[in-house]
C-alpha cells in the first residue's frame, strides 16, 4: 500500500511589497527571525536552491522563510540592494543583520544557526 505524503510548504512566497511589509510586521510581533531568499525564475543557481530552502524551513520552525522573486517584487529587492541571485537576507526585529550572495548551502545553514542562537527563546 502506498502512502502519499502531502507536504505543505513552510516557505512563504512574497508577491508584493504589501505582503512583504505585513510578513515583516508579523515576524517582529512573533519575535521570529526572517530568512529571505531573493531569487529569479531564470536564474538556475537560485532555482536549484529552492528544495534546500524548503528543507531549512522545515528544520528551523521558529524562523520565517520568505521567497522573493526579484522580477515580481523589485521594490523590496532594491531596498535590500539585491544585485545577484541567489541572495539570502537574514533579518531580526525587522532589520537586516546578515546577507549572503551565492548558492552556498553550508554557509547559509551556518549563518541561520548563528542567527537563531542570537535570538533568545522563552521556554515555559
UniProtKB/TrEMBL annotation:
Taxonomic superkingdom: Eukaryota
InterPro entries referenced in this protein's UniProt entry, alphabetically: Thioredoxin-like_sf, Thioredoxin_domain, Thioredoxin_H-type-like
Signal peptide positions (record): none
Record-linked Gene3D superfamilies: Glutaredoxin (3.40.30.10)
Residue span(s) of domain Thioredoxin: 1-117
Name of one Pfam family that matches: Thioredoxin
UniProt-recorded name of the protein: Thioredoxin h
Gene this chain is encoded by: TRX
Amino acid at each position: 500500500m502506498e502512502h502519499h505524503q502531502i507536504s505543505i510548504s513552510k516557505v512563504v512566497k512574497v508577491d508584493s511589497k504589501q505582503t512583504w511589509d505585513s510578513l515583516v510586521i508579523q515576524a517582529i510581533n512573533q519575535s521570529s527571525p526572517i530568512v529571505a531568499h531573493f531569487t529569479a525564475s531564470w536564474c538556475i543557481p537560485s532555482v536549484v536552491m529552492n528544495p534546500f530552502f524548503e528543507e531549512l524551513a522545515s528544520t528551523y520552525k521558529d524562523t520565517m522563510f520568505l521567497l522573493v522573486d526579484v522580477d515580481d517584487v523589485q521594490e523590496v529587492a532594491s531596498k535590500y540592494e539585491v544585485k545577484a541571485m541567489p541572495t539570502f537576507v537574514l533579518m531580526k526585529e525587522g532589520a537586516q543583520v546578515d546577507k549572503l550572495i551565492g548558492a552556498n548551502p553550508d554557509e547559509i545553514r551556518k549563518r541561520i544557526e548563528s542567527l537563531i542562537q542570537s535570538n533568545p527563546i522563552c521556554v515555559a
